[in-house]
Amino acid sequence: VFPHLFQPLTIRGVTIPNRILSTGHDTCLPHHGLVNDEYIAYQEARAKGGVGLIVTQVAGVHETARYTSHLIMANSDACIPGYRKLAEACHAHGAVVISQLFHPGREIMESANGLLAVTYSASAVPNERFRMMPRAMPKALIDEIVQGYGDAARRMRQAGLDGVEFVGSHGYLPAQFLNPRINRRQDEYGGGLENRLRFLRECLAAMRAATDEDFVIGLRLSATEKDEEGLTHAETLEAMRALEDQLDYLNITVGTSASLGGAVHIAPPMAFPAGYASAEAKDYKEALKIPVFVVGRINQPQEAEQILARGEADMAGMTRALICDPAMPGKADAGRLDDIRACIGCNQACIHHFHRGMGISCIQNPESGRELVFGTHPVAAKARRVMVIGGGPAGLKAAAIAAARGHAVTLFEAGAQLGGQALMAQLVPQRAEFGGIATNLARECVLAGVEIRRNARVDADLIRDFAPDAIILATGARPYIPSYESDGAMQVVTAWEVLTRQVKVGAKVVVTDWRSDWIGPGVAQLLAREGSSVELAVSGVHMGETVPLYVRDVTAGELHRLGVRVTPYARLYGTDGDSVFMQHIASGEPIVFEGIETLVLSNGHLPVDDLSGEIAAMGIECHQIGDCMTPRTAEEAVYEGMVAGRAV
Ligand code: SF4
Known about the structure:
Blueprint: E1 9-11, E2 14-16, E3 20-22, H1 37-49, E4 53-60, E5 72-73, H2 80-91, E6 96-102, E7 120-121, E8 135-136, H3 139-159, E9 163-168, H4 173-178, H5 193-209, E10 216-222, H6 233-243, E11 249-253, H7 278-287, E12 292-294, H8 301-309, E13 315-317, H9 319-324, H10 328-333, H11 351-355, H12 371-374, E14 385-389, H13 393-404, E15 408-412, H14 422-425, H15 436-448, E16 451-453, H16 460-466, E17 470-473, E18 477-479, E19 485-486, E20 491-494, H17 495-499, E21 508-513, H18 519-529, E22 533-538, H19 549-562, E23 565-567, E24 570-576, E25 579-584, E26 590-593, E27 598-601, E28 605-607, H20 612-618, E29 621-624, H21 634-647
Parallel strand pairs: 3-4, 3-13, 4-5, 4-6, 6-9, 7-8, 9-10, 10-11, 11-12, 12-13, 14-15, 14-17, 15-16, 17-29, 19-24, 20-27, 21-22, 21-27, 22-23
Antiparallel strand pairs: 1-2, 18-28, 24-25, 25-26
Helix pairs in contact: 1-2, 2-3, 3-5, 6-7, 13-15, 13-21, 18-19
The structure holds iron/sulfur cluster.
The site of iron/sulfur cluster has 14 residues, from helix 9.
């Protein structure tokens, strides 16, 4: 089906069986700076699923490289046994394994290890995102770090890995030396291109000298950093032409942590089109002789195949696609395209977990990152008759897992469509792909043999007639309407009514955002796009506090572009005529919005739980999951579905 995607690629005698690449990505799975069994199980699941090349997450080459408390450190031989076990586990399934070698320079969070980090860069030029003022590296420290790269490469060689990837992307240390606006040194490491390349050349030479001729050494680079201060496409292209003789491949991405629009390119959310960075890679592919890899929301094998067929790159980075469905390569190779659980670019459980210091996972695939606990679901000791009530994400996942374990599962959905609130989330601008979660989970149900009954509202009589051995109750929620004072003059509607087009709102609107989630900003965006003047009144410090960082960056930019005014610390008090009265939560002072025609309420949910009492009275085993235990995110709902599906 995919003639280009399943072509092997040989680099320095190392043959990668196909063109699917899992790029280096932080997982927060390792602890104490070492590769551990959790991380090995995570990567082994991808290898088993058929990925061609695994680039493992960044490994620090020097003590000054610690940028999070979860960073693997490759600055001592203690790292070798863990990497050896990892390489053996992945090699057993045919995957090639390369480790990223890393120094972030000034790109360090102040909270790393809970201490204020002292950072170093080529020069003392501050970092915008983390607000760090680095110290210019003295020559002795440069020498130590160059040596650190060499020693780390030697350790990876000893551990049996196939190569290393020098991380110069996203504005990390090599890019800081390369960038004339950050590197203001007067010595042999600053000035003209060859001087700015000196640090990169020395590191690459140290890595080669410490390893063998058949050891792969690649470079990851942002083709353009998309920032006023960042490297431009022309600058990096010129630099790579000069550096090519020291590289076995070039792995292209875009952006830095300070890019316009935020660090979004590190894990571009669903607002970005699939494969959007491949055009950047094309120029390198044309200019260089070495293989060029590319990333950028390549979430389906069809996208990857097209990028390869157009000659824009030699390998396709499909990291989140593999987090979401580790078996994707094998399914693609077998032509089972409908069975692929496609990543929707929500960032909710992968990079959002990393930003919260938690092990990464996937909202659609909670088994991901938890392979040691949920890697397999035990076959049921005795097949039971299981009734799942509610066809939202929680009910769908529960039904799929219970059926896959051997139970006879029937899912009852009161409406015509499966998906619950995911169907509403997909109606928000730039979130259309969210509906994919419903499609994917419904497919899991079909594959597992779940009987699905739509337009089937369940009551006590139906439960008695059906006589299940166990019930999974996933009946969802409805909007919560807070109490507030009102003279009844103003149109007051819920966010759900707006999203489902049940109401028409006025020209001047106030939207409340009590949960600081996607609903308030999403509705504000929708109404502003349609011409309303919108005030978004959020209860927290800022909009979208619970929304993944890069998704929030995109939304914040869009709200600003649309002229939506955001008021923080706002609590609804009441309406009078065309005025909405709120209270500033911190000061207690009034906030008044005047000339308002419609108040849109996004104030959380109430559980829909009409059956649990009667089920208890019948004495039937019951597991309550998802938004009928509100508040629940889609991630929490799916996770609970998996747990309930294992428990029946
Ligand atoms: Fe993709 Fe969302 Fe899963 Fe991350 S959590 S892998 S973005 S579907």
